[in-house]
Amino acid sequence: MDVLSDVITVMRAGEPRSARLAWHAPWAQQFASVPGSAGFQVVLQGPCWLIAPDSGPVPLAAGDIVFRPHGRGHTLADSPSTSSAAPACDPNDPPVPRFATGVAGAAADIGAPATVTLCGAYQLDPTHAHPLLHDLPELIHLPAHLGRHPALRATVDLLATELERPRLGTDAIIPALLDTLLLHILRAWLDQHPAPGAATTGWAAALKDPATAAALQAIHHDPARPWTVATLAAEAGLSRAAFARRFTALLGQPPLTYLTWWRMTTAARLLHQSDTPLSAIAGRVGYTSEFAFAHAFKRRYGTAPGRYRRKG
């Protein structure tokens, strides 16, 4: 797979959740901090405000998308001055359905125009968090612009329709749309970064650098291949020394360090999600010896592969 697809595959755990809500002023809703998660808010209709402890109040308008990649809490409200009396929403609470619709706010004003939002949360596995995720800011705000990010807007429309009018197949469609939404949000952010004049290191810069991106794509496409710095440099179209310098400068680690990390991360996912024999997993991540694989895995995770699998 390509790098971004692999990032989503390894870091997501459990089932995503989403809801379509109509809010009638005055209203305010807290969303709890949930370590090991990421959350989003999409404004479908009307204005509102996002209030977060790590930023000032952010005005939102119809079409705006907000992504909280590190699971930090925040409040959504009709005004920064409206306080929330309701309990904080936590997607891990058992009464919270996976997919829902609802109406909230002042019952007397149900007939008045409402602010309509889509909210959602993804459960992530912190032990497999890709370094690209660490590069993301606490708050990603994608304002609505006519004609901008059309695929992202189309995904939002499809998701809103499925939540508002569920039909046969909705339980299969919504998780797929939530994964698609996450990919489009990350694509939109990567397209805008690094911004002109900003630091040109990190994953956004690396994925836009043709040489580094080619090497990363090669690693992710075939982690079993016996890669060396020289063979990766050939994929990048650079000399061995120039490639190693560029890769390390952009990503903060040498090429083979990242290769080993990705191989062990892939192996850990296969151990948890499949009953593939250890020898086959070793081969899929570039080890011809099961003993050498077990040694490398234990150095990374502090336990043998078989015990890691049994602990689940």
UniProtKB/TrEMBL annotation:
**SMART domains registered for this protein in UniProt:** HTH_ARAC (SM00342)
InterPro entries found in the cross-reference section: AraC_lig, AraC_XylS_family_regulators, Homeodomain-like_sf, HTH_AraC, Tscrpt_reg_AraC-type_HTH
What the entry lists under Gene3D superfamilies is as follows: Homeodomain-like (1.10.10.60)
Residue span of region Disordered:
72-93
Instruction: List compositional bias (Low complexity) regions by residue number.
Output: 77-91
Molecular function per GO: DNA-binding transcription factor activity; sequence-specific DNA binding
Q: What is this protein called?
A: AraC family transcriptional regulator
